[in-house]
Amino acid sequence: MADNHHATINIESDIKLLQDSPTQKQINQAITNYNALKTKSITTQLKFLNTLIKYILPVYKKLSKVSQLMIKRCFLSVNAINNLLNQIKITNLEIYRLFLKDLLLMNDSLSTLIENSNSKRFETDQIGILVFGSKILNSFGKDLDVKDYLNILVHQLLNCYIQNINVPNEFILKYLSLHPIESSITFFNFFLKKDNLDYLKKIFNSMNSLQKREFLLKFFIPFVLGKYLNLKNFDSYIKIFHQLNIKEIEFQLIKYSAESSNLLLKQFVSILIDEKVQHLEKLLNIWGNDSYTSSIEIPVQQLFTFQLISLSKILSKEEKSKISRDEWFLNGISKKLELNDAKLRNLLMILAKEISNGEVKYEIDDETKADPIYNITKLNVGLTDIIDFDSLISSNDDTGIVTIPKKETIVDSDDDEEYSENEESDPVFLKDLISRFQANNITSITNLLSITINLVRQKSSFEFEIEYYSPELVSVLVGLINKFDENNFEQIKINAIVSVLVTYPKSINTVLDVLFTGDCSLQQRMIILSSISLAARELSGEEDDFVSKPKFAFPTKELPNSFEKLEITGPKIEELPSDNLSQGQVIRKSSRLTKPLKKTKINKFSKIAHQWFYPLANAYRQGIQLGSNSEIFIKHYVQTLKLITLASYPRIGFEDMVTVYEEIEQDSGIIIE
Question: What residues does the Telomere length regulation protein conserved domain cover (predicted)?
Fold first, then answer.
């Protein structure tokens, strides 16, 4: 105890010494004394680290390599890095960023950081936020490109696995979420190599089922198989996946594939999964349900049917014979034939012929046979044990990738003639849509917004894809500005945001985060409020002429009204003063609300209304930053609360919402008539 007390006294004197132009030898000795402490109080740590930051780091580049290394090792803790980041934020000194980069470039910095956390949950979470969130990356500003940062991290991860350091799987998912495109490209380019594949297997096989699902369906399949799977590497990817333990998520995988427009991916998954009969029966339970047939758009049913065909072609005659008597199969065939769609009918007959082992006699014409969707490619699988790593990720477009032709795709925009983007076809995955918004060669935002409206609404039944990408997509949409000075920009942007909110209502959390914490102009915030109002009304069953719905969308129903005091009309366009970020018009509601709500049997909004209303109400009560033109914004804000309240009826707690709304209306001094 006395020794530790003596060391503590020495540390105090060392701190004073470090503040008084110490020699390099004195710096090294002070750090040695600090490291010798068996226990360090938070106060001692902060004093010593802040002294290094303030007095030693400014001369860091002048010190010897040994001294630099000793200093860097002092900063391999959560508290140390947080202190350093605070100083970077306060002082903006280049030397601090240079030191931080040197710290990251140490081969074992991440592994040491994880070991020093001693498996404490709080510190582990902090490492995730600091390293794999955007906190460290953002501190560099323009001094470190995101690609370089991702490359540094992926090498740090590899070093951890080589040293058998237990890396939390959350870190991998956070890494892949750091950037919508570059994260996956860097990660999979790095680990899909002969020397690193075993580590990829280790990462995946240590994940729980939810993590595996996110890893595969959000990242691996869209970014790797969705882009690079072809006839040349098909067998190699099969061999890789056979080394991954996917048994517990096989059904999620086949269901994702069933909703995909990538025909080769459908065949890949059909071959890959083990429980083929079991999963085919599960798919038939969905596909053959009357509500599925009546509510899901025909192009999606075509994709789903192709998956059934692909899977059934692999089964034995005995397995197919049993399924041919399945109630869902027979019901699905008969009900879908009533839809009178020629392409779907042909697919149904092919499926029936396949499952009946040829008992159903049906011939399709030559024109139909030429369509890729009707043809199952003959694939040579398992001929060798060799994985051709060079073929896994290739930029060669002529590799046999098969998707539904553009004229038949479920992504068909009215603006196709105007939208060229170097003659690229419209995206079929939300991930690709997000990438298109972020591309450097974009020439029109409104055309992409129009595509967004169609694609998002068409994806309503693609639950996995919608769940994963909607928050990111809506964040991109909210931040868009009219940099090309396009007509009707605000109107189309609002419609795009509404389409996401209606299709995936939980994305309201992202929208509200941007509203409350984002660096938004007044115009952007007004657009957010308008989008929230219109989405709430549509979810409640109300129709607004302003809201654009593609022809495949099924009409929503109407909402009952027993809150007689609140009345609404459709929105109108009203000019707002322009600001430095955006120009044009924004939706505002008329001050006269005269249209009564109509009666309906279904209100999809009532159950979730509190998740939309109370964050807005509480933010108002706490005094959100209103900025310039605050009277205009407050009026629109209160109007939005009123429309949400209206749309929430009927629900338990409706009267409480009315009370809160009326208190806010009275406090604002703005009466919404």
Answer: 427-536
